[in-house]
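Justification of computing resources. Each target in the renewal requires a structure prediction run like the one illustrated here; the chain below, 227 residues long, is used simply to show the kind of job we budget for.
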Amino acid sequence: MQKICLVEDEKSLSDMIRLNLEMDGYHVDVYDNGQNALDELSKISLYDLVILDVMLPQVSGLELCKELRKTSRVPILFLSAKGTTIDRITGLKLGANDYLPKPFDLEELLLRVQILLNFNEISHEDELIIGSKTINFNTYEIIDSITSEILILSKKEIELLKLFSEKIGVVVSRDEILDKLWGDQFPTSRTIDNYILSFRKTFEVDPKNPIYFHSIRGVGYKFTLSL
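Resulting structure tokens:
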């Protein structure tokens, strides 16, 4: 189920949007305050789509968009009563993907949501975003959106990350990894451990307390990007 974060302080409007999105099969979480959303920005960056009102209490939607774009490429749809060309350009320059002025037609909102989610799924099928880092499976590159640093990975590292990306939240056994990536070469399980340690140093904020790459004792490993 695709997950949408809605940041909207007008309760009647947010209730209406949430109800209709849920009727279309989406999971929706709502924030009614810009500061509350900012406090949980790392969590919000993991949603499939963020719908942002521009005018919010304490912290504006524009500021939230700006902060989100420092670490995440999650699609962002702005909603705003300010629908002038300048306002739309401002939102798009900050990194938003679309801008819908209020009042809007509900069917148009649902259509724009569907388009953004579909486009994101198609365009990023060869990429994986972990925190501030984007992995390109075609070029073997990791690009850090904060520092702009580029790291080149080995073919085996890319293959292992690709496998994890296809099994998010699922425990993958050592035997499965060895069979799919090494075949008849028979490396030791310690070889995989070394790759996991390397991934933690690269992607985890605190490698000793991983939130992405987990070791499951006696079984294998689990990669998570859960909210």
